[in-house]
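Subject: Predicted fold for Membrane-anchored protein, 289 residues

User T.R. writes:
Posting the sequence so we have a shared reference for the thread.
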Amino acid sequence: MRGGKRGASVTGTARRRSWLTAAGALRVPEITAAFWIIKGLSTAMGESTSDYLVNAMAPQLAVLLGFAGFVLALVLQLRAARYGAWTYWFAVVMVGIFGTMAADVLHVALGVPYPVSSLLYAVTLAAVFASWRATEKTLSIHSIDTARRELFYWAAVVATFAMGTALGDFTAYTLHLGYLSSAALFAALIAVPAAGYRWLRWNPIFCFWAAYVITRPLGASLADAFGKPRSASGLGFGDGPVVLALGLLIFAMVAYLARTGADIQRQPTPAREPVPVREPERSSVRVLD
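User M.O. replies:
I've generated the structure tokens; pasting them so everyone works from the same file.
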């Protein structure tokens, strides 16, 4: 009976752990050119999809659907044993959609000005980073190998999307720069951490997260520039066609990564200790003359 209870307990523990990432398994992709391209496309798609949904149906229903998709994507990601291109990028896309909606709700539904919402999300992001750093002693994405670190990571990603959305709207509407000028501004800003990392030996973790934050308003500004009507300083293609085009591009790139595994982080192989060489034993037999 004791053996049976113990076996059931072990099975129950394993079943509970299957709901979260397996310890020791890296949970995010390698940072390559493909990562930044898909990240930019997903930020743009989040902006266009959010705008399309809130205009195609009741805004409350759109936000509810966005939240449901966001929860589903994170559950799938957290239940995966290790990094997988489909689950990871599905989570990023849904974070982009729901993060956009969260930022828009503050302004449209609650009347919070864009400067205030930008500052609010910046403080939220800083709090996530501070808690993450204090708890795990690092913000490196190359150390996302436990459930807690992954939860910190996704909390930071959600905050960057919401902050980037508010920041992009702040420059486009409050500062009256329009979409294309805002995109040019953020393109110049994102070059700063890239140059600092490449030539000035800036901290790589700081450069990564700085570029990650700026990618959001850059992608959102470009999406609005293509999708919004000419009367609103856009090119007038419409949110629906922009969503379709971006979705096809993301699907093609993620399919390539899933097939090739080109973005899978390789865990370093521990160095092997040298095997001591045993000296041959001397024979105790004496040779007689």
